[in-house]
């Protein structure tokens, strides 16, 4: 059966009996994509939902943007596409109903119910503050809190921005704080700030012109309303208002910094306070301090503490005065150092160890030494104020009582003073130079200066009643081992020139150097020599016969020579030395070169000699002295004058190297003559030296 005769798209058809005996061909079902119209004719194949009839009467998929409800005898007899409402569109081909019309960007979809109860869809343009990205069935979405859009029909959340006067913060809009603003819709995370020191009257400002009020601590520049200046130090401004100056702090108070925001910031700086009933702050008085910016009073340092000046700003300025020390740390208290204690010589900071120091042992402060109270202006500031008591002195280590021979007035730090050379004290602990006496072994010299006692004397020293002393000679023949002997018991050895039992004087021809015990005898001079009594050294032993420097000493009267029987020179000399009165001998050889000859002696005149003749021994250390009635030797060309005595005459001879003999005439007009020996062929002359005729023996 050809169903296309019914409809080109009829898939199954049948004959249907009509009235009477007639029948007609009707369609039972249509091809896929088509549906049989329910109009009672059964002859029309409409497009199925999602399809629309094209010009060739074929059903095609509904185009994107529209929907196709399918053919319908009453609603869509022409099988046409239906338009989605404004702002809505389908998003795929073959949409079947209005329900498949989704929102276009910037629109929302809403359902509208007609009075008959029929519900239809509408597209609504998203208003300012809402958006829709499209392609959905949702209404327009509201922007986050505090956000808006710049215009209607916004298509994304990114179009949601902060309105003028706000900023965007974590997806929400927040009003600009006072002192900030925005002028338009924005996505800024911060608001623009007013110039420094300027603010706005309210939050949410939308114009820089809203920046018109000075912040606290600032004032508007009278010459430029867009500039705020910080309040100078010692002024404040406590309002947010249009002000062109700051207010000075009352009571002379200061501000720690510029830009003070209120009178509570007007304070007394460190080192100042406002006293009760005062109109202005003043520096902290001496002995007080204040460390902070506040309105509190100054703090007292503590009893006995000082500050160097007013206005101290720290407790470090609290000092212990020189000569004072801490007595307590709680409360802090200082007191003057006294009764054998001392402080520092400068003011010092408070510390637990800043106490008075005890004087070193055996030293005392003046208040103790003088048994009185310390005077108010008397300060003990170092151990130099720790003094020794009278009769004591200092050493490199510790004080000590002044030893014998020293003294100290005391009340000082001086070492004990030495009494001086030759002086001492009778005991330790002396206090005055007037207590120095001549020390044992010394004497007071003629010049008023102490001298040590020489060997052979001793001194027991002075006493405080009789401070001077003299040296006492040892008993005759006795001496001491050293100078400065202090007692007679030290006279225990023989003196020079003494020896043997009882320390007797050494006889002629012997000597003793001294210092030997009494059992040591004097020493005999060498054979052919002799000495004076009491000789003390071997150099005082002289040859018993001494040659003339040349040949002979001539006599004024040659007849004074006495010839003797002695055929040789040695025999002639022996004859002279055997005679106690022989002054000298002269031996004249018989012939030149012969040992035999004539011997003559000159003898001393013992009864009233007019001339004293002294023969020089050696360089004049000693002379052999004899009495005669005439001169001896040849007078020198130059003679002395004005010689007072024999000793002086001797000294003149000693000084004259060419002199071999002096002749002293002590008559009415004393005269000193210097003479020498002369040359004489075949003659020799020697003078005798006897101990009892030595000048030193004759003039001890």
TrEMBL record:
Ranges of residues in domain Tyrosine-protein kinase ephrin type A/B receptor-like: 125-160, 175-211, 217-266, 282-318
Protein name per Swiss-Prot or TrEMBL: Tyrosine-protein kinase ephrin type A/B receptor-like domain-containing protein
Biological processes, Gene Ontology terms: signal transduction
One Pfam family from the record: PAN_4
Domain Apple: 567-601, 643-674
Residue spans crossing the bilayer: none
Organism: Tetradesmus obliquus
A single Gene Ontology CC term: extracellular space
């Amino acid at each position: 059966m050809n169903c296309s005769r019914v409809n080109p798209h009829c898939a199954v058809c049948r004959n249907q009996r009509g009235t009477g005996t007639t029948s007609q061909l009707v369609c039972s079902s249509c091809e896929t994509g088509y549906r049989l119209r329910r109009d009672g004719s059964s002859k029309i194949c409409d497009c199925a939902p999602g399809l629309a009839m094209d010009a060739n009467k074929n059903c095609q998929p509904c185009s994107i943007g529209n929907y196709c409800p399918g053919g319908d005898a009453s609603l869509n007899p022409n099988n046409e596409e239906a338009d989605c409402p404004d702002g809505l569109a389908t998003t795929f081909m073959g949409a079947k109903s209005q329900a498949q019309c989704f929102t276009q960007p910037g629109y929302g979809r809403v359902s509208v119910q007609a009075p008959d109860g029929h519900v239809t869809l509408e597209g609504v343009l998203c208003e300012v503050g809402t958006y829709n990205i499209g392609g959905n069935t949702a209404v327009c979405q509201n922007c986050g809190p505090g956000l808006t859009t710049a215009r209607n029909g916004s298509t994304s959340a990114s179009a949601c921005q902060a309105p003028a006067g706000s900023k965007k913060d974590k997806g929400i809009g927040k009003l600009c704080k006072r002192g900030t603003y925005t002028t338009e819709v924005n996505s800024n995370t911060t608001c623009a700030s007013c110039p420094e020191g300027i603010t706005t009257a309210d939050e949410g400002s939308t114009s820089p012109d809203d920046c018109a009020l000075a912040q606290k601590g600032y004032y508007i520049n009278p010459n430029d309303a867009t500039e705020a200046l910080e309040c100078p130090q010692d002024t404040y401004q406590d309002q947010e208002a249009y002000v062109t100056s700051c207010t000075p702090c009352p009571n002379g108070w200061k501000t720690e910094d510029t830009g003070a925001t209120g009178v509570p910031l007007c304070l007394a700086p460190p080192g100042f306070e406002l006293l009760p009933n005062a109109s202005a702050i003043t520096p902290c008085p001496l002995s007080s301090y204040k460390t902070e910016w506040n309105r509190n009073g100054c703090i007292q340092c503590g009893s006995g503490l000082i500050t160097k000046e007013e206005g101290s700003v720290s407790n470090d300025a609290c000092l212990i005065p020189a000569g004072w020390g801490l007595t307590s740390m709680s409360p802090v208290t200082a007191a003057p150092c006294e009764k054998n204690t001392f402080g520092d010589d400068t003011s010092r900071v408070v510390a637990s160890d800043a106490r008075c120091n005890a004087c070193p042992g055996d030293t005392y402060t003046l208040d103790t030494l003088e048994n009185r109270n310390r005077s108010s202006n008397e300060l003990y500031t170092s151990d130099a104020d720790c003094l020794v008591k009278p009769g004591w002195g200092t050493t490199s280590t510790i004080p000590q009582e002044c030893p014998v021979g020293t003294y100290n007035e005391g009340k000082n730090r001086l070492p004990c003073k030495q009494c001086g050379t030759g002086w001492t004290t009778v005991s330790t602990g002396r206090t005055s130079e007037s207590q120095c006496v001549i020390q044992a072994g010394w004497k007071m010299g003629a010049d008023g200066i102490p001298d040590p006692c020489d060997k052979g004397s001793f001194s027991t020293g002075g006493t405080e009643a009789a401070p001077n002393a003299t040296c006492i000679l040892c008993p005759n023949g006795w001496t001491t081992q050293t100078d400065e002997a202090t007692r007679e018991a030290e006279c225990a050895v023989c003196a020079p020139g003494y020896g043997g039992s009882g320390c007797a004087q050494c006889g002629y021809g012997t000597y003793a150097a001294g210092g030997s015990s009494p059992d040591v005898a004097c020493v005999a001079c060498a054979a052919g020599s002799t000495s004076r009594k009491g000789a003390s050294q071997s150099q005082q032993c002289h040859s018993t016969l001494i040659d003339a420097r040349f040949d002979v000493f001539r006599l004024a009267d040659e007849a004074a020579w006495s010839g003797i029987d002695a055929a040789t020179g040695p025999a002639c000399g022996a004859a002279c030395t055997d005679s106690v009165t022989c002054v000298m001998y002269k031996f004249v050889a018989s012939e030149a070169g012969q040992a035999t000859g004539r011997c003559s002696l000159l003898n001393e005149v013992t009864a009233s000699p007019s001339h004293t003749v002294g023969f020089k021994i050696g360089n004049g250390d000693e002379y052999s002295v004899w009495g005669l009635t005439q001169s001896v030797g040849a007078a020198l060309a130059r003679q002395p004058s004005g010689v007072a005595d024999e000793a002086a005459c001797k000294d003149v001879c000693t000084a004259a190297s060419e002199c071999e003999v002096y002749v002293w005439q002590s008559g009415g007009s004393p005269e000193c003559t210097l003479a020498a020996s002369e040359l004489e062929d075949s003659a020799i002359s020697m003078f005798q030296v006897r101990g009892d005729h030595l000048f030193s023996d004759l003039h001890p």
